[in-house]
Design brief:
2-enoyl-CoA Hydratase, Chain A, domain 1; Pdz3 Domain; 23 strands; 10 helices; alpha/beta; 19% helix
Amino acid sequence: MKKFFLSLLCLGFVVTSCNNDDDTVIEEEEEVETPEEEVAEVDIEVQNFFWQTLNLYYFWQGDVPDLADDRFDTQTAYEEYLSENSQPVDFLENKLLFSEDRFTFYNEDYTQLVNSSAGVSKSNGLQFGLGRITGTDDLFGFVEYIVKNSNASGQDIKRGDLFIGVDGQTLTVDNYIDLLFGDNDTYALNMAEIVDGGISASDRKVTLTKSEGLVEDPIHVSNVITSGDKKIGYLMYNQFVSGSEDTMNAVFADFIAQGVNDLVLDLRYNPGGRGSTAAVLASLIKGTNTSDLLYKTVYNAKLQAEFGSSTENYFVSTTGAFDGNSDAPLNTLNLNRVYIIATEGSASASELVMVGLEPYINVVHIGGTTVGKNQGSVLFVDDPEGGNVYDAERVDNINPNVQWGLQPIISQVENSAGFTDYVDGLVPDIELPEDVTNLGVLGNADEPLFARAIQEITGVSGKRNFDVLMPANVVSSSKLYNPRNTVLLLNNSMPVSKIPVAEKK
């Protein structure tokens, strides 16, 4: 039988070889030979990978009894425990995850998680929200936007269109995941329209097909408008993707060239992404003083003791020299105020930019209450010598028998003022939900949320009516249905440490 030692895994986001002197030795027990036909052997490699990773890195490791360092007295007891839990997902969900954990996720194929964090997905390019039809369990969908160069971009469908069914089946709270996010790569949306203040089926159908490898440009819209004596820059940024920093920097260079003195940052559909990208965006807005603390990351007790001050993350002065970026100096606006559109679709790195900027400049939040994701994660794979941290240069070292990816919550974030308590979301300064009857054109000065920001900037109220006839009241969306989309991705680089996974008592 293959042995799974408790002390195999050594911590290291930037990993060096683990010194044998640093590992706690678990004494081998005398094994009794058993005839092969009497052994009902269970494959426990995945369970071993899950347990080792979570025992060391999981933020709530100290709150889960089965992850305690002294949980097992012997090697045999550990292996018997793993064998008793033959289904990896049930084992993870029911034995290892903390009850308050909303955002840990996993996949049998780690490459799916790698692609997701890079903005690459299997998709038809339709981004939509889902709302409940009043008094029923039926749902309706409304198109938020269409990804450029996608299948949907070539179809007769646009922002603001409504649908109530898929392939002739009415959407409900019980079936929408199977119908919209299942294995059906091609489906026909049953479209709808607003009649007498309600949503009614129409005869129109739109057929869409998902394709592998769709790459979404996270910069969906950028433009500059003039209102009175104000030059207002507008940026809609839809995912914090590493490698987009140079392009963002170019957008801000254009803002400077056009004399922008106010900025509206639209994060209403941005569920999060890379923390280092958030640092670049925050610095483009506020300034590049690298001694100013943007946020801290707090870990479980044993990791925190190792990391200390290295958990501090500062504003930056360049785009960085990773994922194709040129390490160019940032074209910062040096603003003392920013207007951020954020809603129930905004999470993670979007919220981090908001709370990270708050101690330094005035952040005017327009829209709705955000998701409330104050936690960070890293992708892990079964690579013990690499600390189990995914490294694109070590893919050949991943256990060929275990291709799972595990992205657990490993940290909590707080800003420079020590603020971390926003699990219930960030409440807007100016509440204005999207109106399904009038979503408008993104980036257009007449789009309701942007128009409200412009009104706040100029101080000119005019005669614009911001009454909402049919608020979206989002139940789910094409991005929020899966927790892996609302993740703050921490950089896979931290101080070297050599903590064994667990110590035998």
